[in-house]
Description:
Blueprint: H1 3-31, H2 39-55, E1 59-64, E2 77-80, H3 87-91, E3 99-103, H4 112-118, E4 122-124, H5 129-144, E5 149-151, H6 169-177, E6 181-187, E7 203-209, H7 223-244
Catalytic activity: a 1-acyl-sn-glycero-3-phosphate + an acyl-CoA = a 1,2-diacyl-sn-glycero-3-phosphate + CoA
EC number: 2.3.1.51
Pfam families: Acyltransferase (PF01553)
Amino acid sequence: xxxAAAGIYTYAEFGLTVLGFxxxxxxxxxxxxxxxTQRLPGRWMRRLGRTAGRLxxxxxxxxxxxxxxxxxxxxxxxxxxxxxxxxxFLLSWLPWDMRxxxxxxxxxxxxxxxxxxxxxDIKLRRGHGESVRSxxxxxxxxxxxxxxxxxxxxxxxxxxxxxxxxxxxxxxxxIKAQVPVLPVVIAGTxxxxxxxxxWFGKARACAKILPPVxxxxxxxxxxxxxxxxxxxxMAAALPDLRSRYGNI
Length: 248
């Protein structure tokens, strides 16, 4: 299928997939509205991501690395680099439940925004103190309920694929909750949907799970060391992954 035709098909397929999932997700969200983990509504959101990604001929996803043996019973703060709007579709293939943090603007468009709301994703208005505090409270409740939370510590998509400086929130959260940080590195999604692009590209992408970084015994003031330790591990893993999944 030519790329232009595949792109048009992909837009239509995404829209129809979301429309098909929304009623189911609305019922799940209502039934589990008091659950701080939003585990089952979020599971439907990841099914939506996997289904939409599976049905487009343009995208192909791989997962590498081993998930921690206890991740189905124990909460983690999961972090990943952020290259593209295709990243959530790729990360939907990770084999565990998560609550996701996403910027507030993503909840506004119809269909995709409704799906994120119904899936229990956590809103964040960047640069707004009360929104940041509310997000941290939601994350803490989710972790206390036993579910991992997912954040992009760069805070925005990288324009050129280079790893941006990490913000502090994910690491402060992990230390406060005394849960490990689980880094995941992504390569290949930038070619699928570059920042500010209105179109889709044909590509194969991969998410690689790295070893978890423990926080046991760390104090509030140690977040910068934890942050740089995680960033260094991700920066070291990215060149090999990018050499196999679309060099930048």
